Amino acid sequence: MADDRLSVIFAALADPTRRAILARLVEGDATVTELAEPFAISLPAISRHLKVLEQAGLITRSRSAQWRSSSLNPEPLREATAWMERYRQFWDTNFDRLDAHLKRMRTQTEQNEK
């Protein structure tokens, strides 16, 4: 696997469990136990998902006494969004051109029917 930053971020985001964990962390910091609640998987499995998210920079983990909480780090998501933005603009332009073409075809069809 490539070790460039975007590849690591997208690999972490590829898993639906990790995306669900990030969605939960939007609401605020949470412990491993709190993050595991909605899933039918073990705490060690959740911990492995958290490790992947932490390595991608998507979360930070802190320890306070015996509690270890995780929090969302939005910066890598901004990087991924910025990278995807170029392609959104490309598709928007192509959809606009397709829309214009379909309108021309519809107009020509309507004129031919008269």
Would you give an account of this structure?
- The chain has about 110 residues and is α+β, with helices and mostly antiparallel strands.
- The protein has 2 domains: about 5-75, Winged helix-like DNA-binding domain superfamily/Winged helix DNA-binding domain (Arc Repressor Mutant, subunit A); about 85-114.
- Helix content is about 65%, strand content about 10%.
- It contains 5 helices and 3 strands.
- It has a 3-stranded antiparallel β-sheet with strand order 1-3-2.
- Helix 1 (about 5-15) packs antiparallel against helix 4 (about 45-55).
- The termini are far apart.
- The mean pLDDT is about 90.
Show the helix and strand layout:
Layout: H1 5-13, H2 16-25, E1 30-31, H3 32-36, H4 43-55, E2 59-64, E3 67-72, H5 75-113
Summarize the structure.
Pfam families: HTH_20. The chain has helices at residues 5-13, 16-25, 32-36, 43-55, 75-113, and strands at 30-31, 59-64, 67-72.
